Automatic annotation (TrEMBL):
<keyword id="KW-0378">Hydrolase</keyword>
<feature type="domain" description="Helicase C-terminal">
    <location>
        <begin position="298"/>
        <end position="443"/>
    </location>
</feature>
<dbReference type="Pfam" id="PF16124">
    <property type="entry name" value="RecQ_Zn_bind"/>
</dbReference>
<feature type="domain" description="Helicase ATP-binding">
    <location>
        <begin position="95"/>
        <end position="270"/>
    </location>
</feature>
<keyword id="KW-0547">Nucleotide-binding</keyword>
<feature type="coiled-coil region">
    <location>
        <begin position="18"/>
        <end position="45"/>
    </location>
</feature>
<dbReference type="GO" id="GO:0043138">
    <property type="term" value="F:3'-5' DNA helicase activity"/>
</dbReference>
<dbReference type="InterPro" id="IPR014001">
    <property type="entry name" value="Helicase_ATP-bd"/>
</dbReference>
<keyword id="KW-0539">Nucleus</keyword>
<dbReference type="GO" id="GO:0005737">
    <property type="term" value="C:cytoplasm"/>
</dbReference>
<dbReference type="GO" id="GO:0005694">
    <property type="term" value="C:chromosome"/>
</dbReference>
<keyword id="KW-0067">ATP-binding</keyword>
<keyword id="KW-0175">Coiled coil</keyword>
<dbReference type="GO" id="GO:0016887">
    <property type="term" value="F:ATP hydrolysis activity"/>
</dbReference>
<dbReference type="InterPro" id="IPR011545">
    <property type="entry name" value="DEAD/DEAH_box_helicase_dom"/>
</dbReference>
<dbReference type="GO" id="GO:0005634">
    <property type="term" value="C:nucleus"/>
</dbReference>
<keyword id="KW-0347">Helicase</keyword>
Length: 574
């Protein structure tokens, strides 16, 4: 009947639809699978490129070639405008990569010649190169240098006049800009909407030829100099995707570099790195005398004997230390001045200026004195107390000998300073680990200092000889092996005993040394034969090996570090 056949017919239709949906589903599933596969392929390729050293992947490309369309002009401009005879290591590679439109990160030690890698392309480009630089004093130095070479450059900062700003803004969109380089602070990018709008116009007009970011490691929180304003710089690649970015830094571990790429939105940036080794620097560690006057006497003798007319830096732990050291040096006829973060900007540049023109010999500084110091003839960098990490030390000591001539990098290594530092850095994520490495560097009387530094940075300097340019290679220490197990056990039991007596009796590092020396009640025979300085070395070694650890106690005014048995203590007891 009619109804039945209608039903039959609909059933057939439904079945057909279902089967066509089935086959559509099939093909969609197939497509999904294909896309999934492609997705993971792409992801792993991206990961591979991002994480592996990009220079390997671009191995086919020879960045040092001189067959690029610009190669001839490049060389002639190097000679005629910059009055330089040849490129230094990595300069040509970096310039070629950047001029090919690639994003680049250049890690090159201080004084290596990073500026040329964006200044030279800036001359050849038709538009303008924006240089992001963290310090106004740095910019002024650069502007002066460029002006002397007859290169037009401008800067925008808080003290720019209205007319200057107006002129710069006009030029940014003009067919023939009146300058090649524009220096700005990172704050300009993060805070000035007006400037960003102008940059946008500059880009649209095809005038934004390159963006250079100096001290680019400031973008990463993993580095030493994190600056919040740098974090925003990722906006540049997003807004101006076709403008190559070149980031420059003197120190960057692999971790910091990777992080920097992420923050700048330049995952495919090529990384170029020159060897970290500074062959003209003599590295030395000296045991620090206990009294301030003895340390100063040693320092004064060192300076008067070897550097009577040479400029140097003495890095100190705190503002107070800076003042103490500086006034002691002045009393003994060595002209010095203090530099730290709390100085008024005017005073800072006055001190810097006096030092630059040699009217003072020594700057006593906290680590606030650093970035942008490009005095070439610094003959010594003395650390009145150890740095908080090897990375910091490399950077601070690296301000010596930028002219390539011999210079001294000396640390006065004192036991008490270790705990001054530890109570400061304990709040930082990797603070204590970093400090530990620094202490190991100072404790070591056998290994080449260059080797210790290269190992820290994960580099292999085997092929580089030290040429006896460090205290250990120069044979300045005698050492012999003795078994100190029982002495260390005795130190440990002294500490345990004190701990058992209760909270209030715990021992600081200094108190442990005192107890070991036999003052107080805790005389121990095993320790009697060792000097205080030997006991100190044992304690630091035990901390490194985790036989001991620091236990921090907060008071309203300070942090105290007590020594307590560490996770490995039982290994020493049994
Ligand atoms: P960085 O920024 O890497 O610390 P700079 O760019 O300030 O170093 O350069 C340090 C010094 O080296 C400057 O005086 C510069 O003129 C000089 N310099 C750079 N490249 C060369 C080169 N190829 N030949 C000679 N001198 C150079
Ligand atoms: Mg520089
Ligand atoms: Zn050595």
């Amino acid at each position: 009947n009619k109804i039945e056949s209608d039903l039959q017919e609909e059933l057939i239709q439904v079945k057909t639809s279902l089967s066509s949906i089935q086959s559509e589903l099939q093909s969609l599933l197939q497509r999904q699978e294909n896309l999934q596969e492609r997705k993971s392929q792409l992801e792993s390729e991206i990961n591979r490129r991002v994480s592996s050293s990009s220079s390997q992947l671009d191995g086919e490309q020879d960045w040092s070639s001189e067959d690029f369309p610009w190669s001839k002009t490049l060389r002639s401009t190097l000679n005629s405008t910059f009055h330089m005879n040849d490129f230094r290591p990595k300069q040509l590679e970096v310039i070629n990569a950047s001029m090919s439109g690639r994003d680049v990160i250049l890690i090159m030690s201080t004084g290596g010649g990073k500026s040329l890698t964006y200044q030279l392309p800036a001359i050849l480009a038709k538009g303008i190169t924006v240089v992001v630089s963290p310090l106004v004093s740095l910019m002024e130095d650069q502007l002066l240098g460029l002006r002397n070479l007859g290169i037009e450059a401008r800067s925008l900062n808080a003290s720019s006049t209205k007319e200057e700003v107006k002129h710069v803004h006009q030029s940014m969109t003009s067919q023939s800009p009146s300058f090649r380089l524009l220096y700005v602070t990172p704050e300009k990018i993060s805070k000035s909407k007006r400037f960003m709008a102008q940059l946008e116009k500059c880009y649209k007009a095809g005038n934004l030829s390159r963006i250079a970011i100096d001290e680019v490691h400031c973008a990463s929180q993993w580095g030493n100099d994190f600056r919040p304003d740098y974090k925003i710089l990722g906006i540049l690649k997003r807004q101006f995707p076709n403008t190559p970015i070149i980031g420059l830094t003197a120190t960057s571990t692999d971790k910091v570099t990777l992080d920097t790429k992420k923050i700048l939105n330049t995952p495919f940036a090529l990384v170029f790195k020159t060897a970290l080794n500074r062959s003209n620097l003599f590295y030395q560690v000296r045991e620090k005398a206990l009294s301030h006057d003895d340390v100063i006497a040693d320092m004064v003798e060192l300076i008067n004997t070897n550097f009577s007319r040479d400029a140097g830096i003495v890095y100190c732990f705190s503002r107070k230390n800076c003042s103490e050291v500086s006034s002691s040096l002045n009393k003994r006829g060595i002209k010095s001045a203090v530099y730290h973060a709390q100085l008024e900007p005017i005073e800072k540049s006055r001190v810097h200026q006096m030092w630059t023109d040699n009217s003072i010999q020594v700057i006593c500084a906290t680590i606030a004195f650093g970035m942008g110091i490009d005095k070439p003839n610094v003959r010594f960098v003395i650390h009145h107390s150890l740095s908080k990490s090897v990375e910091n030390y490399y950077q601070e000591s690296g301000r010596a000998g930028r002219d390539g001539l011999p210079a001294l990098c000396l640390i006065y290594f004192g036991f008490a300073d270790v705990f001054k530092q530890s109570t400061m850095v304990m709040t930082e994520r990797t603070g204590l680990d970093n400090l530990n490495q620094m202490v190991q560097y100072c404790l070591d009387l056998k290994s080449c200092r260059r080797n210790l530094i290269s190992t820290y940075f994960g580099e292999n300097w085997d092929s580089i000889t030290c040429n006896e340019m460090c205290d250990t290679c120069a044979g300045m220490y005698e050492h012999s092996n003795i078994d100190v197990t029982s002495a260390c056990q005795s130190l440990l039991s002294t500490i345990r005993l004190a701990e058992q007596k209760g909270e209030g009796n715990r021992l600081t590092g200094a108190k442990v040394v005192e107890a070991a020396a036999g003052r107080g009640k805790n005389k121990t025979l095993e320790l009697k034969k060792f000097s205080a300085s030997e006991v100190q070395r044992m304690i630091m070694h035990m901390m490194f090996k985790e036989f001991l650890r620091e236990d921090f106690h907060f008071t309203p005014y300070s942090t105290i570090s007590y020594l307590v048995p560490g996770p490995m203590a039982s290994a020493l007891t049994s």
